[in-house]
Structure formats: structure tokens, C-alpha cells
Amino acid sequence: MNIENQIDMVNITINGKEVSVPKGIPIIAAADEVGVRIPRLCYHPDFYQNGTNGSGSCGLCVVKNNTTGKIIRSCMMKTTEGMNISTNDPQCEEARTTAMQLILANHPLECLTCVRNTRCELQSTAAEMGIREIPYTLSPTTYPHEENSLSIKIDPNKCIKCARCVVTCKVLQQVQALEIHGTGHDVYLRPIDGLGMSETPCIGCGQCTAHCPVAGIYEKQDLDELYELINNPEYHVVVQMAPAVRVAIGEEFGLPYGTLVTGKMYHALRLLGFDKVFDTNFGADITIMEEASEFSKRFIESPDTLPVITSCCPSWVNWCEKFYPDLVGHLSSSKSPHQMLGVMIKTYYADHAKIDPKKIKVVSIMPCTSKKYEIKRHPDMSVAGVPDVDLVITTREFGHMIRQAGIDFINLEDQEVDQLMGEYSGAGTIFGTTGGVLEAALRTAYYNITKEDLPDDAIEFKEARGFEKNKTATIDIKGYEVRVAVVHGMMNAKKILEEIREAKEIGEPSPYDLIEVMACYGGCLGGGGQPYAKNPQKAKEMRSKGIYADDKGAKKRRSHENPMILKMYEEYIGAPLGEKAHHLLHTHYAPKPIIRTKAERDALKTQ
């Protein structure tokens, strides 16, 4: 948040210094604005930025209100005019130390073998606070792990009961798949009502893992299986990586947020032993060829079937199938980019390389935990007789692989991607940020509708860019008015979807023609599998700048101009939306029941 852009400001005093800050934001956020760091574990800036509170449970963020003399939790109290706050009062320091020591006394001290080691907020905050002893009896719990999800795992023994994941799931993502259960010492994190995680409404987005400060909840780890594939001489292992990975993986090695490291990434993947390195951006160009054609056809021939809603985010699709099943028919039937590239590797590339598809293993490096679920969500994801994609790892897992292999990532020389399905357009790379899919689709839809290319000076759709909650606009395509919306985060999606429902109920046309929805805030840049960031909002903003810089520097900026795409369609697929394209590149969706209690699950089993 930029305080200079705030209209309603208040004057407060923090540690004896008068400052001007936005009115009504949490004191801890105001302190962050003026460079004063208050320890925290249960607070996350995403909560107040989206109009909700955290749990106020950890007790680390206490400050002293010098006006009343009271010690208060700065994450729960809002700024008001004239407020006088001390963050380093001795009473506060003592209260924080006690709170942290109690948390540590109930936490397993397994830091060296923990998946969050050196990337753990509990670890770093304890060091920041100078905690050197725990004067209480250690009493960590021994609850069983929850591991039946394809996307995430729960370790209730490492949970510190901060409830970040619960607030994220229930409020920000409007799902409610998690709960803090029990009383006293027997309080632990679990799926709602004790169900298995795969039985809950969970959409696999992994925002719970991105917001967890410790390893209470984290992505399903697939590196052991990946090493087995790479080390098996029977397999030809092909890797691809999503647009958002190239502007985030550098953070794992100390590079600034948003640093574009595409060439280093290709080099590292070859050093790790992959046989072929392709790029999901190419798959994004295929997606646009199909999705933009689908939209253009419906826009011209059957406008009563609008809107078309993007479907490349599996968490959004899962959420729609569960919470808005009546709108499933508006989802584009196009597969997501990595699934499209996966099936083309198993068919088009296999034919070119004269390799049995059964011997090819495709690995996707994604910013997303839900992609681990997506590859197994439907038989359509195995149309070539083998899975389109065999394994998915997150950006964080990729970083771990590079470190484990002892690769000096920062000093790697840039290398080029492998050809046949490597070259991508600028439209393919902007898929990584919120608004990017819509902008990429419009660049090609304009051509499909008018049979002319957008002028170079009009190729950027500024209306789709930025991090506003919901962006809506009317785009002029040579006399055709296209009403568009860009949504990121499921809490924000509800408003747009309710508008569509209301129009249907009264027999009116949809207020929108084309809608992009991404489950994660910021789009894939803020995906549940991205590197943990100390400043999540700045990280997303800088990653977005890196993505747009990649687009700006591309030789071709429209998917339908990519020569490799055109060659592939000419040689193998035929026309977009043709019979072969539908068989390979499209999928189906269906309503899914929402289960929140064991009773609901048992009732479904008896039907």
C-alpha cells in the first residue's frame, strides 16, 4: 500500500516519532508503512488488504498504547487520530518473549530436517527476538499427518495455531476446508470435521501453504519420484516450466523479486539431468489459439452462450464445479497450457523424435500446488493413452533441487530452450500474471474477429493490468464492444459470478463477454507453490514487472504469430477447434458435491 495515495490519513506517534498513516488500518500495518518492524506470526497483510482480520492468537505483536497505558495486539487494533504507540516498551518485550517461549515449548524442534528449514517464520522470528532458552517443559504433540490430498499435506504437530491457513481458506478463498479443532493443549489443525483432505471442499490452490508461517501445512513433495524418473535410463524425461517460475525462482538464491532468469533456468534443468527442456509458454500460445478461437466463435455466432470464462487455473475450475455448478457451461473447454504442451510432447514431439510415448515422462514445474491434482482430475488428461503430464513440482521444489545438486545458479550462463516446441510469444509469457490470459486472448481474438492484427502501439491492454480486486472494461474491437472482467482470488470472484447469475435469473444477457479468473491473488505470480516472500505484495508486483518485460522484449507478441505454433497446426493438429484439436486439447467439467461434514459424506455414499 502506498501511503501517499491514501485520501483519509491520520497522524499518530510511533516510538516518539510523529507519522501520517492511513486511517483504520491495523497498527502493525501502519508500523510496516513507516519502517518499524513488530514481530508477528498470526498476522498477514493479505488479510487487512482484503477487508478481514487475522486471529490475533500468537501474542507477539503486542504494543503499548501510551494514552491508555494498555498493552494491545497491534494486528487487531486500528489506527485513529492522535494515537501514541510504543512498540519496544519493556512490558511488550517481556510479553512477547513469554509468548514465543510458550510457542516453542509446544513445537517439535526438528528444524534441520524440516521442509521449511531456513524459510520458516517461527525460526527467523525467534532469532530476530533473540530467544536463547525455553524455560518451560517441552510438550510437542504427536498427531498423525494428513496426507490423502494430491496437492497438500498437513503436519498438525508443527502447526502453531495461528489460524492463518483457516482464515485464508474460509475468507480469502471462500472454501472452508480447514479448522483448528479441540481445546486446551489438545488443539490441532485438521481438515473440516475430521474428513480426509480430498473429501473436503479443498480446491488445492495451496494458499494455505503460502500463508502458513511454519510447516503446519505444505505442498505434497514429489522430488523422490522425480529423481527416480531422471535416473531411470528407460525413460526420456522432458521438462517444462510455467511463465511465473522464471520471475520467481531467482528469489530462492537471493536475487531481487521479479528477476527474469529464463536462460539460467534452462541451463540448470539440463544440469539436473532432463533430456529435453521445453517451455510452458509455448503451451500458453496453444491455449490462446484454442481459447481465443472458442471465444471469437461464440461472440460472433452464439452471443447468448456468453460469457466465456478462462479455465487454465485448476483451482478456479474446481471451485466453480463445487460452488457455482450452474455456471460450469461457461468455462472454456481448453486445457491449461502445461496439459496442452504435455499431450503434444506425447504425440507431436514423440512422432518427430521417434520415441514411444510410453517411454516419455513429462514433468511440469509450476507456481501452483493444484497442478498436482489437475494431472489426474479427468480421463481427458490421458488422451494419448498415457498421462499428458506425469509429475508436477512447485517452484519451491525446483529451488530445492538446484540447491541439493550444488548448482551455482546465480553464475550460470544463459542457455536457449530446445526447439520444436520452445519458442514462445509475449502473449504466452503474460499468462503468469493476473490479467495476462485475458490480454493474450484479446490479441488473438482481435485478429480472429477482424482478420487484422492489432497495431503494435495498441497491443497492450492496460485495462487488464494491475492488482485491483476486480477489473472490468469495455474493449472496442473495430466497432465490436467486448465487455471483459479480470478476477483474482475466490472472494473477489463471487461478485462477478453473482452478477452473471442475476442476469440469468431475469433473462438478461450476461454483463460480460470474456472473463479471466485466477484462484490466487496476483494470478500465478502469487501461486501456492511460489517462493515464500517477506513482502508478498512487493514480490507479486515485481514479478509482474518481470513478466511484462519479457513480453515487451519478445520478437513476436501474439500467439497466432508464433512460427512454431503455426507449423505444429499445419503439420499435425489442423485448424483450431477442429476434430483433432478437440480430441487432444480440450476437456470437460461437471458439478461436484460440497462436503463439509462426515454426515454429508456418508449420505452421499448411500445414494
When the domains are counted, the total is 3
Beta-strand proportion: 5-15%
Radius of gyration: 25 Å
Helix content: 25-40%
What would the principal axes of the Cα set say about the shape? globular
* Low-pLDDT windows of residues: 1-6
> Mean of residue pLDDT?
94
What fold name stands as the CATH topology of the largest domain?
Answer: Rossmann fold
Overview features:
607 residues; alpha/beta; Ubiquitin-like (UB roll); Rossmann fold; four-stranded parallel beta sheet; 20 helices; 17 strands; disordered N terminus
Topology:
Layout: E1 9-14, E2 17-22, H1 27-33, H2 45-49, E3 62-65, E4 70-73, E5 84-86, H3 90-105, H4 121-129, E6 152-154, H5 164-172, E7 178-183, E8 186-191, H6 207-211, E9 217-219, H7 223-230, E10 236-241, H8 262-271, E11 276-277, H9 280-301, E12 308-309, H10 314-323, H11 337-353, E13 360-366, H12 371-374, E14 391-394, H13 395-404, H14 426-429, H15 436-450, E15 470-477, E16 480-488, H16 490-505, E17 514-518, H17 536-552, H18 563-573, H19 579-585, H20 598-606
